[in-house]
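Write out the 3D structure for:
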Amino acid sequence: MTIRVLIADDHAVVRQGLQMFLSLDDEIEIVGEACDGRQAVELAHELRPDVVLMDLLMPELDGIQAISILRRELPETEIIALTSVLEDSSVVGAVRAGAVGYLLKNTEADELVRAIKAAAQGQVQLSPEAAARLMREVRMPDSPETLTERETEVLREIALGFSNKEIAQHLSIGEKTVKTHVSNILSKLNVASRTQAALYAVRLGLVDSL
């Protein structure tokens, strides 16, 4: 299956570099490039990519605002924040907005390819530095609704980095059922992304760390 990727970055040289090495992978197809957040939202609606690589510091509409809009309007599209900025507010803002991943631009090419493939499966992808900051900064909901036993199992699997397909196999349930459970978990915890849900699982002690 080919993973359709949209690149959003206000620097042409960055877009060209990403296009060049990502297109070397047969499983990845670059379907479009956006030079600002507003164009990223418009192109995502038009092209329906599987994954958006989103720079955070862009004109017109910044990356965090664009992530928030896309998460709300195109929930099937996964978003990786790809940035040179490792500020607590940026990391927390991107994940709260609904990014499934947060990687720095100095990430190795093969690592980025792996992250895109994992994100397409809905798996959490954070640079170690970003994960450390998130664990310190992201506040969990004060009084979340109680999760069912099955939802707790699914949450634990999400935090362990498994895709919906893998969770379905592990728990011997349908993939559609897993999607329903994930949707219920995000709703009950009042969070926008699997990443936030995974952090909650760590806080609960369901897993040791991300």
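The longest strand covers residues 28-34.
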